[in-house]
Design a protein that fits this description.
7 helices, 15 strands, alpha/beta, about 25% helix
């Protein structure tokens, strides 16, 4: 039986999507955020510096709207010493189906102050009249709003990747949060063989968060867990960084 992804063969899809690096930091007990999504600083300075170097090697960085609202991130390379910092800045991309991003967020503020690239907001292509007003507000604040067809209000990962590729994004770094991570990890089960993630990089911090923390694997069934091929493990300061490929 032939396998298709978004109406294409796997080979055709692989040639029309960005190379994808999924990366995040977690506690020993698998949590990436605190209670109700509160931001946790899990990475030590060494692994944080690694993450900022990795950002400069990608065309764009993808986060979900939950991370954008809870963390108000900048998604830049500010932790690299200025005299060593590459000039390339990645494009911030926010998956925000219902346009909830705040127009005063740091990503848009940095763009207006010429300190960052223009953020792209990926939303449901079927906007309501209420959404149109929010779209105009975000565009006035500096964002580019891009509609992607959804299924039952959910933007499918293959559709998202194809749109980004057609807009010139050839390398994509996916940083979270929990819903985005879970969606990218679950997607290969629908598109066997894996046609979604090229590299998985997980930073494990020597800390425990507990039951109140937010994990990323609770909704992954045994059949959705992808098979991993270990590439490398490094100790960076207090953290352990594991690099794998999906098979």
């Amino acid at each position: 039986m032939s396998v298709s992804v978004g109406g294409q063969s796997v080979a055709e899809f692989l040639s029309s999507r960005p190379l994808v690096t999924l990366t995040f930091a977690q506690s020993i007990d698998g949590k990436i955020a605190g209670k109700e999504g509160k931001q946790l600083i899990l990475s030590g300075k060494e692994s944080m510096l690694m993450t900022h170097w990795m950002r400069t090697k990608h065309d764009a960085i993808l986060i979900g709207i939950g991370t954008a609202l809870n963390d108000d991130p900048q998604l830049n390379s500010r932790h690299i010493p200025e005299d060593e910092r590459p000039s390339h800045l990645p494009r911030p991309v926010i998956l925000d189906a219902n346009l909830r991003l705040r127009p005063d967020c740091k990503l848009l503020k940095n763009y207006r102050e010429r300190k960052g690239r223009r953020p792209w907001i990926i939303c449901d292509a079927s906007l309501t009249s209420n959404d149109i007003g929010r779209k105009s507000t975000l565009e006035d604040a500096g964002a580019r709003v891009i509609g992607v067809p959804s299924a039952d209000g959910f933007i499918m990962i293959p559709n998202l990747l194809k749109v980004l590729y057609n807009l010139g994004i050839k390398t994509l770094m996916v940083e979270g949060g929990a819903t985005i991570i879970g969606s990218f990890l679950a997607e290969p089960a629908r598109t066997q063989p894996n046609a979604i993630i090229d590299t998985l990089i997980v930073t494990i911090a020597p800390t425990l968060v507990g039951n109140d923390g937010i994990g990323y694997g609770e909704k992954l069934s045994a059949t959705q867990i992808p098979s991993l091929k270990h590439i490398r493990t490094e100790v960076m300061g207090q953290d352990v960084v594991i690099v794998s490929a999906l098979e």
